[in-house]
Amino acid sequence: MAIGLTHYLFLSAVLFCLGIAVLVARRNAIAILVGLELMLNAAGINFVAFSRYVTGGVEGQVITVFVIILAAAEVAIALGIVLNIFQHVNSANVDEADSLRH
Amino acid sequence: MNVPFEALLFWTLAVVTIVPAVVVLFVKDIVRLAFWFLATLAGVAGIYLLLGADFLAFTQVLVYIGGILILILFGVMLTHRDPLFMKKGKKELFVPGVISGAIILALLVQVIGDTGWFSSPHEPKPTTAGIGYALLSDFVLPFEVASIVLLVALVGAANIARRRDAD
């Protein structure tokens, strides 16, 4: 059976749901960020698959370049926040940062 | 002999992408999680190559593996603590995670299967010149805004994470 659009859509759906599972299940802040990145990668696969199989231009790939740019910026800021919280709570576990005063 | 190369490549890359993501869900050590995530990112770069997005595959390797993953490893290194000293950290919530992922997967699979997709495979060709032209003609506004976003993220992250000794 020839590889078509739906193959890539199912692949990206499975990767997206694994990202959701990692985001919900893990208690380490860095692992939650990794789950978020899995979801962004799945969306990128979706965009490029549609660019190849439906529209035929490069618009999907340009959008994916922007997704990668914004993912980099978001990881930088999120890690800055995690490090700031770590300086107060001394742990990267999200259950430990449970009070509003330090 | 008619070897279905595209199907072989697709299923190999699908396994290389999905299996490390499952391991990322269940592995205990955060450092090993980061390296299994590297395998997933490499698999996604291969998928981009299979889809004919050559510039995007190289961008994925350079920026995601060579930038974001290194940032994550720095974060792992700087937030490392002995787990014996953890006071109130709860255990990982695997059951709610898997259940929520499975529900949304069922929903997505149902929608993807039921939709009549108008798909016509186009011939893949080199995309670097096309992306370059598009970034400066159709997508020039998001391009400039993205550079401003990166500047703000740079300054903001450096300010958030600095040591506050004499505040």
What does this structure look like?
The complex is a heterodimer of chains A (102) and B (167). Chain A starts with a helix and ends in a 13-residue tail after the last helix. Helices cover 77% and strands 0% of the residues of chain A. Chain A is elongated, with a radius of gyration of 17 Å. By secondary structure, chain A is an all-alpha fold. Chain A has helices at residues 5-25, 29-55, 59-89. Chain B is mostly helical and 167 residues long. Among the domains of chain B are: 1-80, Four Helix Bundle (Hemerythrin (Met), subunit A); 126-161. Chain B is built from 6 helices and no strands. In chain B, helix 1 (5-26) packs antiparallel against helix 2. Chain B is globular. At the A-B interface, helix 1, helix 2 and helix 3 of A face helix 1, helix 2, helix 3, helix 4 and helix 5 of B.
Summarize the structure.
Chain A has helices at residues 5-25, 29-55, 59-89.
Q: What order do the SSEs of chain B take from the amino end to the carboxyl end, as H and E?
A: HHHHHH
> Using DSSP, what is the number of strands of chain B?
0
- Ranges of chain A where pLDDT stays below 50 over 5 or more residues in a row are none
Rg over CA atoms of chain A? 17 Å
Strand content of chain A: under 5%
Oligomer: heterodimer
In DSSP terms (H or I, runs of 4 or more residues), the helix count of chain A works out at 3
CATH superfamily grouping of the domain at 1-80 in chain B: NADH-ubiquinone/plastoquinone oxidoreductase chain 6, subunit NuoJ
Q: CATH class of the domain at 1-80 in chain B, please?
A: Mainly Alpha
Order of helices and strands of chain A: HHH
Using the 3D structure, state the CATH architecture of chain A: Orthogonal Bundle
Low-confidence stretches of chain B: none
Which fold name corresponds to the CATH topology of the domain at 1-80 in chain B?
Four Helix Bundle (Hemerythrin (Met), subunit A)
Measured by DSSP, the beta-strand proportion of chain B falls in under 5%
- Mean pLDDT value of chain B: 90
The CATH architecture name of the domain at 1-80 in chain B reads Up-down Bundle
> Helix- and strand-based class of chain B?
mainly alpha
Radius of gyration of chain B: 21 Å
- Most residues in contact, chain pair and counts: A-B, 78 and 88 residues
